[in-house]
Amino acid sequence: MKNRTLIGPFKQIIPMTGINLKGAISDHELEIIEDGGILIEDNLILATGNFEDLKIAYPEAEIHPLKGNHVCVPGFVDAHTHICFGGSRAKDYAMRNAGKSYLEIAHAGGGIWDTVTQTRKSSLEELTKSTIKRANRHLKNGTTTLEVKSGYGLTVAEELKMLRAIKNADNEALPELISTCLAAHMLPKDFDGSEIEYLKMISEELFPILKEENLTHRIDAFIEQSAFSADDIQAYFSKASEMNFDIAVHADQFSAGGSKVAVEFNAISADHLEASGDTEIALLAQSDTISVALPGASIGLGCDFTPARKLLDAGAALAIASDHNPGSAPMGDLLTQASILGTFQKLTNAEVLAGITLRAAAALKLEDRGKLEAGLLADLAVFHSDNYQDILYYQGNLKPCMVWKNGTLVFDRHK
Ligand SMILES: [Zn+2]
């Protein structure tokens, strides 16, 4: 016997169907189902449509009744986070805002290396617990799928500890966690050798274990003057491609260059792009690589935003993610950040919502979510409102009142 539930009536359902993966979107392109219902069968959406029509068509369905005005959108997908870490970088943040330079902060014991030290000191259990806690906080803000990177271990054993913690956290956390290996975050201070030697060691020693233990199918690298150069990364990404890993790139954050590598290696996504110029924008727009804007990092560092408007107008696929991390993006509130990016970059509601739903799902190569459509996962974010525009209008301060993950009501503010 199938378990069928009909949720509704919703004042509006915004299913995000019929929206192109790439390019600008006008708000007129958003389909709006008025007085709608969503029929769920187990973990999947069976149908969306008019609530009364669905009630008649599926009389056996159990009704989950809604009182008052509610708007439903697909559960959000956050395609770029670093929420598995130990320690805090509050001191760095204060020093940076007091005008101290990157070097002064590093000399005072801050920077990524501080997080590496604190993460290495943390046990597998501690990392698992704190990752679950942070992931569940994202869920209350409507995020039902979260990508989580390693990259604060920077030895084979410590990267494995992080990726095992993310895997364990995924078993318990309410959102689904998609892990990524970011062992190529920076050259660890205590590695005795060059960038190329470090990357060679990681690809030879760590990659096979990732496959064996099924810890991740995604490899990411930070291409930047302070991390790895486009030349350094060639052999690393070639090896990752040969082994059928999907590739993602931290690209063009402070200087351009990473996006070109991303496109050359047919990366699933190129993330950051704050320093992308017209050449990089054209390259990304012509590629299948998803451009991921990380407004949380711009807000955290007080830097320019990703040129989201230009990317969309050039025809790129634009996703928006929180980059939640202890250093540059401690806020971890995707909806607030996406809303602010929309204000500064003049993005339509449709473009921002697509950036945190279907286009973000594409940035993780997930085809089973990001839209409210028959056959897809029943991941829903429900807001107390009579107008979907409220969701971005309140700049993240209007929180979901209900969140459904895989057909289960996992968060209910009414109770
Ligand atoms: Zn990042």
TrEMBL record:
Residues 73-410 form the Amidohydrolase-related domain. One of its GO terms (biological process) is L-histidine catabolic process to glutamate and formamide. Its EC number is 3.5.2.7. GO terms for cellular component: cytoplasm. Pfam families: Amidohydro_1. Keywords: Histidine metabolism, Hydrolase, Iron, Metal-binding, Zinc. Pathway: Amino-acid degradation. GO terms for molecular function: imidazolonepropionase activity; metal ion binding. InterPro entries: Amidohydro-rel (IPR006680), HutI (IPR005920), Metal-dep_hydrolase_composite (IPR011059), Metal_Hydrolase (IPR032466). SUPFAM superfamilies: Composite domain of metallo-dependent hydrolases, Metallo-dependent hydrolases. It is an enzyme of class 3 (hydrolase). Gene3D superfamilies: Metal-dependent hydrolases (3.20.20.140), Urease, subunit C, domain 1 (2.30.40.10). This is Imidazolonepropionase. It comes from Maribacter stanieri. The lineage of its organism: Bacteria, Pseudomonadati, Bacteroidota, Flavobacteriia, Flavobacteriales.
